[in-house]
Amino acid sequence: MLPLKGITVVSLEQAVAAPFATRQLADLGARVIKVERPTGDFARNYDTTVHGMSSHFVWLNRSKESLTLDLKQDEEKNVLEKILSEADVFIQNLAPGAVDRLGFSPELLKKKYPKLIICGISGYGSNGPYKDKKAYDLLIQCEAGLVSITGTEDTPSKAGVSVADIAAGMYAYTGILTALITRYQTGEGTIMEVSMLEALGEWMGYPLYYSDYGSAEPKRTGASHATIYPYGPFLAGDNKMVFLGIQNEREWLHFCEKVLSNLNLANDQRFNSNSLRVKNSHLLESIINEVFEKLSSDQIITRLEEAKIANARLNNMKEFTEHSQLKYRNRWREVDSPVGKIKALIPPVTFDNIKTVMNPIPGIGEHSKKILNEFGFNPENIGK
Q1: Could you read off the pLDDT of 308-351 as tens digits, one per residue?
Q2: Which fold has domain 231-313?
Q3: What is the SS3 assignment for 223?
Q4: Given 3.40.50.10540, 3.40.50.970, 3.30.300.30, 3.30.70.560, which CATH number is that of 8-203+331-381?
Q5: Helical residues (DSSP H) of the chain, grouped into ranges
């Protein structure tokens, strides 16, 4: 039996954060009714790279049922009201105040349906001077300080994926699971909210403490580490990048002996502690480069493996898709969609007795007729 079988989730969702949360719930067997405007979740139109479908939408929306409603129409609000009366979870990430204006405020819903778990995801939270401010992932990365520590010394950069959305979606997901456990104990639902700023802020703990209690902000060091050296990218003689990380003095000794073939370097007074290696990184970098430029990336990685030094190749997305570890662990599946079979990674939590759901990606309103009939509405009268 799937752990969330019998749980019904109704989601007024768009873009990334809420769809990411509800897909996790769907993976564990929850029924997720995705309520879309008649034109669909706008993330459907971000791009057309997956056989005509959006890469974002394909990633976030498998195993859901799509119901299209125009919630500006009273009759269609009644449909949502009826479904919510029988649901376990309601989640939304509409613009600030939108659900209140539609008549589905958390406080009103809690009075009507005391067992309902109500989750709102927003950029900055439901109160405070920023509550009505528009929030996109890049902007939250800026406000949370992530961009200030990402990139090179000259060029601040955002993360390459929507980390603020993903952080908020994951906290919504775990918060909903917590609320379900609590309801099992108390019989009561709850109102919960997740702000993207606060979710990403939680992930900023290390640089926050480093700057608050230290004398300076962490530097932007590209793919290198601001406070550990050597830690980051080095160019091999075949012009391929190899990444490595030295975590302690034992590893530094092995690195000097087995990778650089220079045991005397281990006790060099310029480099015999991490703080000194950071201070004199420009000198140490030239020494490492002198060795690495004579070796291929495979030769360097072989030496690093023999020395038990953490390392990685710089894979592009195609190389990640073909990663030998993922193939060996059989992590790829295919899911159905309106445009045919599409490959998908199995969710990262592996259970020994649960097979996660990987059902089709829905077309716009694909399940509208079925859902409307189920809840006692005539599909012919909806959407007119």
Answers
A1: 999 999 998 999 999 999 999 999 999 999 999 999 999 999 99
A2: formyl-coa transferase, domain 3 (3.30.1540)
A3: coil
A4: 3.40.50.10540
A5: 17-27, 55-60, 74-85, 98-102, 106-112, 137-143, 163-186, 196-203, 205-213, 249-254, 274-279, 281-292, 297-306, 317-321, 324-328, 368-374
